[in-house]
Specification:
54% of the residues are buried. The chain starts with a strand and ends with a strand. The chain is 30% helix and 17% strand. By secondary structure, the protein is α/β, with parallel strands linked by helices.
């Protein structure tokens, strides 16, 4: 069986689906690995490293002829046009955001396997959980980005020139990305607080040395499978009103809530931004083309408000750390690929709960329940701060193990991005 790694289509995407170490593992399992020329360049992984690991370096056309195509994100029009019936496409395809892609893959006779739909509550799925691995990276980078953007120190500093108080940092959402952001901000010396509507996350937050905010306006909102349930409109308004008072007392706020295929929940309103002191920083990890967790955030851009608040639309954070992100993702996609193989070939078994969770198209049909029944299309994520739709999050929400959470993203995954 031939598997191929191709160049990513998105201009800002620097990750690659496999790293040389993963090639060695797949070769040992009897797979022929093809790598498109330059596929790893943007992650600082040269063709020579892949060749030494046993991969064949090939043209884009030859890579497209493999039995299975491995990607990080979604294919572009050119890549779609190269697919042929009987092939399998692995990647974080985000079908809840773009259901039309599933229809096109089905029409082309391609088996589509989307890693962002991994059933995260299954213990055996943890090595394949790309949303959590990428959310860990996103949460780390969000905290580092906040520290670099903030005009003062994160830690307490006592010098001959005077004393600098530590920064006060607030994390909204304590899934994989959020917990990683907490741990990183703490290691940078900040005084950290966090909020989540799931009271069971309090111990995780405290174990990282942060303070857990307990709002009186909203009761516990834990949902099925460890996710947060959606709040009612009244609960949401009460939550935002009470959160505004806390936000005003912090120098830095990092938000982590994402809902795949839907507008992210707004956690920080215009009034909350106006309540913050000039020089404060807000990093919106939920920022996307559909909106963000913060009023006025723009994905991929940094905006300074009229009252001097720096608002960072932190989209695509894992891609800013391409070498580390690619290494983690390669382990995830390799684990899933090997799990689905039998006797040297891919053996799709939709009676397997794990496989049924990730296979979106098969034999010319859209087979994933969340796509076949749009009204129930929210199986794969979370709204960690509890302000949006309950079980949907693309880059990452989380049922990842708490021990790994500070350990992408506290809520995970990005969340790629995701939380």
């Amino acid at each position: 069986m031939k598997v191929a790694v191709v160049k990513e289509a998105a201009p800002a995407e620097r990750r690659v689906a496999l790293v040389p170490e993963a090639v060695v593992k797949l070769r040992a399992a009897g797979l022929d690995v093809l790598v498109e020329t330059g596929a790893g360049d943007r992650a600082w992984l040269a063709d020579g490293a892949y060749a030494e690991a046993g991969a064949a370096i090939v043209s884009a056309a030859e890579a497209a002829s493999a039995d299975a195509i491995l990607m990080v994100g979604r294919p572009d029009e050119q890549a779609l046009s190269r697919l042929r019936p009987g092939q399998t496409l692995f990647g974080m395809l985000a079908p809840l955001t773009d259901p039309a892609l599933a229809n096109r893959l089905a029409a082309a006779g391609v088996t589509g396997i989307s890693l962002d739909l991994i059933p995260r509550t299954l213990p055996r799925a943890q090595p394949m959980d790309a949303l959590s691995s990428q959310a860990n990276i996103a949460g780390y980078k969000a905290a580092v980005l906040a520290a670099a953007t903030f005009g003062r120190f994160f830690p307490l500093l006592i010098t001959a020139a005077g004393t600098a108080r530590p920064a006060k940092v607030l994390i909204l959402g304590t899934g994989v990305a959020g917990l990683q952001a907490i741990g990183t901000a703490r290691r940078l010396g900040a005084v950290v607080s966090a909020y989540d509507v799931r009271p069971e996350t309090k111990t995780e937050v405290q174990s990282l040395g942060a303070t857990f905010l307990e709002l009186t306006a909203v009761g516990p909102a834990a949902g099925d499978g460890g996710y947060a349930r959606a709040l009612t409109e009244d609960e949401r308004r009460a939550q935002q009103d009470e959160l505004t008072a806390h936000i005003a007392r912090h120098d830095v706020v990092i938000t982590t809530a994402q809902v795949p295929g839907r507008r992210p929940p707004v956690l920080i309103t215009d009034d909350a931004l106006k309540s913050m002191a000039a020089g404060s920083v807000v990093v919106d990890m939920g920022s996307s083309d559909l909106g963000g967790n913060v009023v006025g955030s723009v994905p991929g851009e940094t905006v300074i408000t009229e009252n001097g608040i720096t608002l960072v639309g932190a989209a695509g954070l894992p891609s800013t750390m391409p070498t580390a992100a690619s290494a983690m993702y390669a382990r995830n996609i390799s684990a899933l690929l090997l799990y689905m193989m039998k006797d040297g070939a891919l053996a799709v078994d939709l009676s397997d709960e794990l496989q049924a969770g990730v296979v979106i198209t098969r034999d010319g049909q859209v087979v994933h329940p969340a796509l076949a029944e749009p009204a129930q299309a929210s199986p794969a994520g979370t709204d960690p701060a509890g302000t949006g739709a309950a079980q949907a999050e693309a880059a990452g929400a989380d049922t990842a193990q708490p021990a790994q959470a500070d350990s992408a993203g506290g809520t995970a995954r990005v969340d790629g991005a995701a939380d």
